[in-house]
Specification:
Largest sheet: 9 strands, mixed
InterPro entries: Methyltransf_12, SAM-dependent_MTases_sf, TPR-like_helical_dom_sf
Number of helices: 15
Pfam family, one: Methyltransf_12
GO molecular function: methyltransferase activity
CATH superfamily of the largest domain: Vaccinia Virus protein VP39
Keywords: Methyltransferase, Transferase
Distance between the termini: 79 Å
CATH class of the largest domain: Alpha Beta
Order of helices and strands: HHHHHHHHHEHEHEHEHEEEHEEH
Strand content: 15-25%
Shape: elongated
Protein name: Methyltransferase
Length: 335
């Protein structure tokens, strides 16, 4: 059967087809067993299916998932190692799954192939699942903080805003009334297609977050990233690209999932990164941002459990303030 192309992998992931009728039939039985809660039997059947279709990337993904749910972590890791060898583009997130079980390095950047494929498939049911079932609140929470800072700073409106990871436009809907030109960027073409139907944004583009920021001049006076950086790992590369893309005095508002440990970042079994509260605060200060709001809140629910996150609104220092400070420091030296 050979290796799958990226397009074939995405289709295989969506439809769970191996190309072998008997292997597909066993996988269907395995899925039925998994739905009934018998994950160990489901994993055993998937192993049989994969004997017939050993290059079936989606099958190894399912097999690893069933083993994991059955508590057979060593077998799950073995399945994901097979998956990693087949999945050159990282569409299934095998490396992330191995890292989440301490069987490989987590890495610090975005797993582009995995995130793109995830949201390409998720786009059509994104709002129903996230807002309707999981109580997603991030756009509302960030918008409230931005509005409060606008009032405090005397900002009537923004000239140009950049909504990173715009998804289906949930954040954009909150921003639209206070932004003259609103630009949305997302790594998923399917997400872009969904939000284009709403007519919220003045422009939309499919691109990776850091590449987008690196390609810009200092033209954005507001940048938002609602539930986006949880897929990106380390903050330093993002902040390093963010500041040059912003106008002096511009605001940035974003959310993170939080953890209270000493680690800067922690990869959860959900394959989303949680960021340390104090490490995040320190990273923002070191990057040169002025912290305006730094709060923790419940962002949504996952399997009935609340997900606590960090909400940030920060400001890029204004040129005038920097110049004034330089003059003051110069005066002190001269004196």
């Amino acid at each position: 059967m050979g290796r799958f192309s990226r397009k074939q992998i995405v289709l295989s992931k969506a439809f769970y087809s191996s190309g072998d009728v008997i292997a597909d039939r066993r996988a269907d039985y395995a899925r039925m067993l998994a739905e009934q809660g018998d994950h160990a039997a489901a994993a055993e059947l998937m192993e049989q299916a994969l004997d017939m279709a050993p290059d079936w990337a989606a099958g190894w993904d399912l097999c690893g998932s069933y083993h994991e749910k059955a508590g057979q972590i060593a077998a799950a890791i073995a399945a994901w190692r097979r998956l990693e060898a087949l999945d050159d583009d990282g569409v299934f997130g095998a490396r992330l799954k191995l890292a989440a079980h301490k069987a490989g390095p987590a890495g610090e950047g975005t797993a582009v192939g995995y995130v793109e494929a995830l949201f390409d498939q998720y786009a059509a049911k994104f709002e129903e699942s996230l807002v309707g079932k999981l109580g997603y609140r991030v756009p509302d929470l960030l918008d409230d903080l931005v509005n409060a800072e606008m009032a405090r700073l005397g900002i009537g409106a923004f000239e140009r805003a950049l909504d990173l990871g715009c998804g289906t436009g949930l954040m954009g809907e909150k921003l639209r009334a206070k932004v003259a030109h609103l630009e949305g960027v997302d790594i998923s073409a399917a997400m872009i297609a969904e939000t284009a139907r709403k007519g919220i944004y003045d422009s939309l583009s499919k691109a990776e977050l850091v590449a987008t920021l690196n390609a810009r001049r200092a033209d954005a006076d507001l940048v938002t990233a609602a539930d986006v950086l949880i897929y990106c790992g380390a903050l330093q590369p993002i902040l390093g690209a963010l500041l040059p893309a912003m106008r002096p005095g511009g605001l940035v508002a974003f959310s993170l999932e939080a953890h209270d440990g000493e680690e800067e970042i922690f990869l959860r079994p959900s394959l989303r990164y949680a960021h340390g509260v104090e490490a995040t605060r320190n990273a923002l200060v070191v990057a040169g941002l002025d912290l305006l709001r730094f709060e923790t809140a419940v962002l949504r629910f996952d399997r009935g459990a609340p997900i606590t996150g960090i909400l940030v609104v920060a400001r890029k220092p204004a040129v005038e303030l920097t110049a004034a400070n330089d003059e003051a420091e110069g005066g002190d030296v001269a004196a």
